[in-house]
Design a protein that fits this description.
Distance between the termini of chain A: 28 Å
Number of helices of chain A: 10
Radius of gyration of chain A: 20 Å
Largest interface: A-B, 58 and 57 residues
Strand order of the largest sheet of chain A: 5-4-3-8-7-6
Oligomer: homodimer
Structural class of chain A: alpha+beta
Largest sheet of chain A: 6 strands, antiparallel
Mean pLDDT of chain A: 92
Low-confidence stretches of chain A: 252-259
DNA sequence: TTAATATGTTCGACATCGCCGAACGATGTT
DNA sequence: AACATCGTTCGGCGATGTCGAACATATTAA
């Protein structure tokens, strides 16, 4: 593992999370390196537009290059491309917003956001990062990860976003077992107060999890008895459809316990 | 300039432009390095989710981490935050789509896209990268760059997108002089056949160019006499409003020749 | 105004870290 | 079944990045 690249990535991470504008000294403290070392890394990243320096204050922030890369990632994402069609029909059928997401570290990244099909103003959440333990999409993905990665995810930090967020390893692993058994996940106001989510995993070749698709909306609309089951059916059918396009086997979400 | 970080950034750039999925050997060829060297860099980037490897084919692509960083960049962008309000009112006034962009290397990156205020379906172009020489936004930015950077931009590669794209250095520098004199740029089907653009620079503290704002739409609507001048006025007024919020002097787009 | 403390930046010597030629195992092809 | 090509591992040489100390500038305090 190449040291300087790792350090550069670490710096990008620090600039990306929380405070958007940091000085060399602050960054050096946060990553635990000498000031001149950080300076050299920053200058190199700046030369490629991955970070930018405010000419006035001298402080550093992320640069436009990372946005360009992010866009290129979306353009090349097979998961996103294949789910566009199904996300739209799922949104129509459910009458709710639809998110497609994938796992990155301990967070779930939204790859596609199909707006709820009414004409209200909604903000695009593509690129948003949500702790996996706080949303149905994350539960659906992690539950279907191979055991090694799953326990590693459980061992990581579990953020708390609302009073409902599940943050105990025992509770979460019980939830995950249920998700794995049922093939879908339901979350009630664990990420945002008032909002609930229903999600199912998207599998790819060899039945490895590529991401998840699900609906997000007011808990009062999604979770009422009757509606709820209809939502679950719509979500799991959409997930299965995308999975088949991604090359997964016919088995749907049922994973062998031995892999 | 740190060598390995530079090489890593180069690899990210290669993965981001054009073919989304490349093998180690192909990447090594494109960046001119030995195969094991590239392998090490890729493994490090992969550990931070900046690249991802297809488990089946072994080929590499960009990872979800870059999307997360791109989103963080947008969240922290002062230019974007300050132009949101004015972009919306400009879109209303002009009845056209509005783009806000900044320069990254030889490309212009779209930071904000306010849709044309009719209810047609439009695709979000945030994150898109356009060669600076092929759009009004790019002309507006580069024209107001300090001379050193401007000549460097002119010396770089000038892409051709349509038959109308200006690609000669002499022609472009004449165009830029006119843009600098007038304070706005007009482009007619140089980026996309059928589409035109009108843009003006956004200045920041000390009157350094931070980006540009402009309208983009069918040439048949934007460039008809009468309408055209009204568009120019709306765009330059919006640009000046954002510039003032960014801390630029009252001088508007008129730059001193001595700075 | 002056002094003091912060900042971002430059320099250079030591030794660590990363580079690449060569070899390996696994796939898929002829 | 022989071949070609892929991604990957190994290890020794040497270039490369690291960090302590010193610098110039900006901001704050007295």
């Amino acid at each position: 593992m190449i040291q300087s690249v790792e350090r550069a990535a670490h710096i990008l991470g620090v600039l990306g999370s929380g405070t958007p504008r940091l000085g060399v000294t602050e960054i050096a403290e946060q990553v635990g390196l000498a000031k001149p070392t950080v300076h050299g890394l920053l200058r190199t990243l700046e030369a490629h537009d991955l970070v930018a320096q405010d000419p006035g204050t001298g402080k550093y922030s992320l640069g436009p290059g990372v946005l360009q890369l992010g866009n290129a990632y979306l353009d090349g994402s097979e998961l996103r491309a294949r789910s566009l069609r199904w996300a739209e029909s799922l949104a129509q059928r459910a009458g709710e917003a639809v998110w497609v997401a994938t796992l990155s570290g301990s967070r779930v990244i939204v790859l596609h956001h199909e707006f709820r099909p009414d004409n209200t103003v909604q903000i695009l959440e593509v690129g948003a990062a949500i702790p996996w333990n706080a949303c149905a999409l994350g539960h659906a993905i992690v539950a279907h990860l191979p055991e090694g990665q799953r326990t590693r995810a459980l061992a990581g930090d579990l953020a708390r976003l609302t009073g409902q967020t599940k943050t105990t390893r025992a509770g979460l692993s019980r939830v995950l077992a249920k998700v794995r058994q049922r093939g879908y996940a339901i979350e009630d106001q664990e990420a945002t107060v008032g909002d609930a989510g229903i999600a199912a995993p998207i599998l790819s070749r060899n039945d490895v999890v590529a991401g998840a698709i699900g609906v997000v909306g007011a808990a009062g609309r999604l979770l009422v008895p009757g509606i709820r089951d209809e939502m679950v059916r719509a979500v799991t059918e959409a997930a299965r459809a995308v999975s088949r396009e991604m090359g997964a086997g016919r088995g749907g979400v049922v994973l062998s316990a031995f892999t």
